[in-house]
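Notebook p. 47: complex prediction with sodium ion.
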Amino acid sequence: MGGNMKIYKFGGTSLGSASRIKKVADIIAGALHQDELVIVVSAIHRVTDLLFESATQACSGDSGYRSTLNELDHLHISIADELFSGSLLDDVTASIRAELSELNDIVQGVFLLRELSEKSLAFVLGFGERLSARMVSSYLQERDIAAFYLDARELIVTDTNYADARVDTHASGQQIRKRLLSLEGVPVVTGFIAAAPDGSSTTLGRGGSDYTASILGAALDALEIWIWTDVDGFFSADPKRVRDARILPYISYSEAMELSHAGARVLHPLAVQPAMKAGIPLLIKNSFNPAAKGTRIEGVTPLDFNRTLPVTGLSSINKVVLLNMSGSGMVGVPGIASRLFTCLARHRINIIFISQASSEQSITLAITPSQAAKAKKILEEVFRVEIEARQIDPLVTRRNLAMIAVVGNNMSGHPGVSAQLFETLGKNGINVIAVAQGANEMNISLVIDAHDEDKALNCIHESFFLSQRKVHLFIAGTGTIAKSLIGQISAHRLNLQQDNDLDVVVCGMANTRQILFDNNGIDLQNWESALLPRDEYQGIEGYLQLIREKNLHNTIFVDCTASAMVAEMYPDLLLANISVVTANKLGMAGSWPLYRRIRDAQRRSNARFLYETNVGAGLPIINTLNDLKNSGDKIFSIEGVLSGTLSFIFNELRKGGRFSEIVRRAKVAGYTEPDPRDDLSGADFARKFLILGRELGFTLEYSDVVCESLVPEEYRGEMSVTEFLDRLSGVDGWYAKLIEDAAREEMTIAYAGEIRDGKATIGVKKVPLASPIAGLSGSENMVVYTTERYRATPLVVRGPGAGGEVTAGGVFADILRVASYLV
Ligand SMILES: NC(=O)C1=CN([C@@H]2O[C@H](COP(=O)(O)OP(=O)(O)OC[C@H]3O[C@@H](n4cnc5c(N)ncnc54)[C@H](O)[C@@H]3O)[C@@H](O)[C@H]2O)C=CC1
Ligand SMILES: N[C@@H](CC=O)C(=O)O
Ligand code: NA
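Predicted complex, structure tokens below:
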């Protein structure tokens, strides 16, 4: 073999069926026009798992191992049936059957002895590659390619750690060159397996065929090593978890190593080393899409791949256990770490992550769950004396954790990376349990709750890789306000994407009867027909439970209901670090204990809680009040009209309309509460004053607001909204007269209120026709703040204070305020 040689390694999915193997042969045949090739193959998809299953079944005395072996037989023979015919089929079938019969003997032995050593298991697992290499080499011959089967046990020498053997690079290199450099043709080498010096079979660890390819490439000084798999290359994050992940056209050896160590399954972590040492580029290619450029892994960044981003990629290991050893007796005592690592190494416990703070009080390790119990036992034994003497505390393990690695050569010397990382995690309420960063500054690893893994990956990815950020909305209520809100989001979404780099994604909608979810965004044109009936038991709690389970990053819950039950959920939402934007007043105007719980939750949460539309709909009333207060102004009084409905009623009565008919019009216009009696009774107005009073710092309950009702005495019993509206015409005459009488005195009637000295009173007032209140029209609200700074001329906020569009606009603005905090 000469200097133009490449290693092509094909993974199990690339060989998963006869048609896949044909595609692989096409790739090889195409490449042979210009290159010499050495082929390395993994076992066919699922085969290693079946081999493992057969062996463990046999060991536990389960005769089901026979049907597992039959399945292996069927899988290989049926592929052969499709690939071959005539005498070649007979030959291939015979060679497969010969391998399988040897396998059968071994597994039967395991069954009889009920004993499965690492050595026997390594032998059993090696059959997968033996079978696939036979199949592929024969099929290449069928395609007139001078291929031949080559067992890697004749090439790669390892120690006797059968499951995860260490390679003797020198001896292997010599054997590889001796066997291969003189040969003509295309060798098809079994990946994964190797041999100990005594010739017994060993394996290079799960996924070790990549390693085989790299060892061969290094020994033969190949031009390139191509790893053919089923994805287009290394992604910036696992695309199954992060939808916006992108292909990385180039990464360095060290980045590849860091990423694959931390869970990126594209490449076996050990496979980088031999290639890196020999300076041979590794390429990740997709056998399902050979035209895709793939990822090139090399030492020096080619100019056209030069990157400016500090972070190259993310990866994660979704099951780790943290083992924490701490105690005052560890401080300043040399040798503790050495004893710890030596004993774990001796027992081949793989440490994924280490962290120790400068206080030396504790050392935290992350290990795989399968090794956790063993590791704990070993350490308890090694440090028994110190634990008994209470110099070291009892060891603590913590499960259900995930480790995330943020990797990039450019992170080194780039201030702000960790700040950005922890900020985005913090705002999303993701608790970082442990952190490690080495002094090479190219990997920050963190351990978090496993439940937060996808959320963390997505928010970190978005923060470092994407110019466009997302917020995920879950809306409760599908009535007037929600409908207008959806319309506004739908109309403005593209502008926000283009001008503000913000994507507002509506992921959930629910009312009392129906529900709709889509993590990727509900179709805002057709959401109403897509709503599905919700199960009885799924009240608002069910909706919230689903939102929590989805655990999307940058989530905002938007309350467009008038439900007390929904408002009761705000503290839980905030404590789950879900931001809340609400038009519903029953939280901030709820009972004092609920109000306190919301405020406390808000203080303890990293999420935001905004409710500007609770008072005067979209008008800036609460924000104005807080700006005055926060900037040190003293507020003497707040007066005004804070009911759109009542304002509309009196404004229309002045023009000569009928009371009952005006109330109906207010309802149709979307000014009223779902039940207009909430407006007519003054309750809605009172709630707004209650909110303003609390905002001013007063401890007020609803009953503290003195409030006059417009619901006539005789209609106050139990009745439906429709019945109430039907009967309301009975008071038309009375209101007409009231306005007429007042007009004769150059006065008119309005419903207004004031807060002064901690007391809130609201009710029907006679005001001069010349007063600003009498000048209101439509649903206009007006708030007059008399303050130290605005004493001679009070500050006035005036404008439409009810209705779908203005309220939804206010809700939307609050959503964007939360978004600008989150992203
Ligand atoms: N209409 C307006 O001008 C303004 C309204 N608001 C507030 O906006 C909120 C919504 O008002 P509208 O849209 O006019 O009311 P609406 O009656 O048209 O809609 C309310 C929606 O909430 C849903 N809902 C009720 N209880 C629920 C629960 N437990 N779980 C899930 N969904 C539930 C209903 O099914 C309905 O879809 C109210 O709190 C109101 O006070 C605030 C400012 C102005
Ligand atoms: N029903 C309310 C709507 C705003 O909160 C009103 O009439 O003001
Ligand atoms: Na407002």
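Notes: The two ends are 56 Å apart (CA to CA). DSSP finds 29 helices and 29 strands in the chain.
Next step: compare against the earlier run before touching the bench.
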